[in-house]
Prior knowledge:
CATH architecture of the largest domain: Roll
Mean pLDDT: 88
Strand content: 15-25%
Number of domains: 2
Helix content: 10-25%
Distance between the termini: 42 Å
Oligomer: single chain
Radius of gyration: 20 Å
Shape: globular
Number of strands: 13
CATH class of the largest domain: Alpha Beta
Low-confidence stretches: 140-160
CATH superfamily of the largest domain: ph1033 like domains
CATH topology of the largest domain: ph1033 like fold
Amino acid sequence: MAKAILIHRGDSRYKDEPGVRYHFPARYLGKMEQTVGDWVIFYEPRANGGRMVYHSAQRVETIVPDPVEDGHYFAILDVGSELSFDRAVPRVLDGHVFESRLRGVDGHPISGGSAQSAVRLVPDEDFDAILRQAFTTDPVALGVDQSAETIDGFAEPLAEFDRPIMQQLLNRPFRAAAFSRQVKRAYGNRCAISGLAIRNGGGRPEVQAAHIKPVADGGPDTVRNGLALSGTVHWMFDRHLLTIDEDCRTILIAKDRLPDTAERLIVPDRKLLLPHDNHTRPHPAYLSYHREKFLG
Length: 296
């Protein structure tokens, strides 16, 4: 087995389904077969305004041929293993190139050649170095306001790597805490359905991070599978008394199962309050899954 960096472009001509499968040509088959059962990190390149960052990790389950396009394959991903990073990690940080094979003899990044490869095998040391930056405990690096009585959006303890980082990727408390931090930060500690942003006497946000597709049903700990919701709204959402319509904005209510007063908990225009960053907005596939449960 081997770990790898996989490049994914939002405007890719390949038939990728982020979080589900990765499409690639036969020239990468040998490398991709080595990743089966191991983990990969996804990288967003510069093309068309890309951020040039590593942003999530996921485990590869198997490789299958594309039944339609000869000479192409799909890497089938373990959907539930996907984990968003606390912060996106640039390919070069403070002059340090994380992928050792992309460093020139002077330590500076190389261009062309292997740097342009969509599939790059990486040693464990490089993989771990990226993850440690992705889940750093340094509030300054995370851009967190330390002047608050509690660190804004980080009420739970930040991840401490007291065990090998790869074990942490499978550790439920670690994943849950990372998911909670990312969702609350994306929504500014405000409930996406009620619009409320309440803090307790110690400054801790009342809002909770809700999975749209539950972990028990194979939902991942990615920010795009999350909504920031106040306690009561979270309870209603988990019981499919509320959901989001096909436009990914309109809030639907199970009027036959809720009293009229429940509508007071919903923003007047019944439009989901979304993060400003498109990369953190709910994925339509997860909203569709939740909506089917609501309608069923």
